[in-house]
Please model this.
Amino acid sequence: MTGGGQGSAPRARVLVVTGLRTALARPGAAPVPLVDGIDLTVRAGERWAIVGESGSGKSIAARSVMGLVDPPLRWSAERIEIGGTNLSGAGRAEWRAIRGHRIAMIQQDPLTALSPVFTVGNQLIETIRRNEAAPRAARRRAADLLRAVGIPDPERRLDSYPHEMSGGMRQRVAIALALACAPQVLIADEPTTALDVTVQAQILKLMAGLSDELGTAIVMVTHDIGILPGFAHQVAVMYGGQLMEVGPVAEVLAAPEHPYTRALLAARPGRAPAAARRRLPVVPGTPPDLLSARAGCPFAPRCAAVLPPCTEVRPAMVEAGLRRVACHAVRAGTGALP
Amino acid sequence: MRRIGFMGVTLWFVVTLTFALTFAVPTDPARAIGGPKASPEQLDSIRVSLGLDDPLPVQYVRYLSGVLHLDLGYAHSQRAPVAEIVFGRLPYTALLAFSAVLFQLVVGGALGLWAAVRAGGWFDRAVFVGALVVVALPQFWVGLLLLYLFGFELGWLPLGGSALPAGLVLPALTLGLAGAAWTSRIVRATASEALESNTVLGLRSRGIAPSRIVLKHVARLAAGPVLSVLALDFGLLLGGAVLVETVFGWPGIGRTAFQALQQNDVPLLMGTVIVGSIFVLVINALLDVARSVLDPRTR
Model:
């Protein structure tokens, strides 16, 4: 790996995906593309947010990156590297060796993610013992992990069952489980959606702290743009299974380029007092019907800046500085319409 | 505590019902004891000696207090106290029932788990069809068929009796076969659901071995529903034991009940029913404990 270097040289790439596609296979019909060609490069310690509405394919993309999609879903990628290991064409055993060790996942609902019939300690130790053979050392490490995710009295908590804990505590346990084998990348699929707002903030703070401390990269899937500023460094805006705009969070939020990103940001509940009495703006139209075949940009039917090629030719990703945007209008310089 | 009270009420209900039934059946106990040649005077004296001339409530209270002291009356057909006979036979039935349940859990559980892992494949379909066929087969016919095949034709196993362990194999198989079939269905259903669950997705995302996921996590999640149904059906299983023990000459309380019925030995029949009920209640209590151990949420 090419880490370090002088000053702020680029850190090691812990996750590289190009041309990620996941489709729903149908008997006697063409497969339905749900994730339609995504490229993503995540560096050590970076925190990414994949933002999109329901049905944009963001969760399926996150699962595909871990090779965790089952029939009738099928996925493929031109290239996929996790923690420096090339996984193109890897078999089950190779994937299994990577999962937990190099890449791990935090799920949306901490109640169903943990097994209800085993103690927290049992589940933690089971995962730790993939590396650590001695039971005593594994138990010590399990307690350390619980302590690291901010669970008080971890020794005693090892013997608790998930249903004896609150939602926030369970999500902390889920984070501890994901970190058990010290992965380089953590996929988090809406990890705070099932929690109430104050707990959400605590969990996000915990995850950010752990990622700073351990150097773990996080790829968080979310529909909540509000949590980006304090948490993520990079954002990828997804729509209709494709990436619309990718770039540093501060830049994208301050000056969104893609019409979809702009519509999405405009639809946030207004903070300015003047806007308080206005109707909430919405993105006009409805999300695309995934079953119908489409050409061009998936956002074209709802887009305010639509151009003739938009409905026919899929716009290519264009790099501009740290930003990547897939839009004909931006390319033509007509994107910045109201 | 509530559980014990509930068991007591159930038992009282069973005792009262069996007592009532003895008056519903057209059998004269005095005639059964005295035989067809007994004179009316002899029959009367037998009735007096058994207390059958007392008013009904007196007989009922006497019977109830007898049960409480484990005195279930006298079995004239075997010339021995009922309690002595029935409790002597109970271990055989317990052994048979235990073996049958073990068979159905192990075989049905394994088939159901593997069918769920290979959902939609040929194995899954074969188990599905096989379970339907097995459930549809009459138990006595299965017993006779097995007896003919393994006992007579192949000569591998004894034709009957209580030789251990060879004599136990066929009756346990016959008694547990239908249970194995429905166990496989329940396990298939719960295991399929578990395999799709977030819990299993989480385990996979941490690289836990598939064999471990199935044998530790999925099996444990499927065990709860199986034990619930087993508790409900255990009485039915004992009912099947009457038939199976008779076919195979297995000396348990099921066969005793059948003999008592043939010989019009009402006290013995009542004794088998009451002891059988106690057995079912105790097993149910044990299964309840087992379930709460397996699933901490039910505690």
Notes: Residues 1-7 of chain A have pLDDT under 50 and may be disordered.
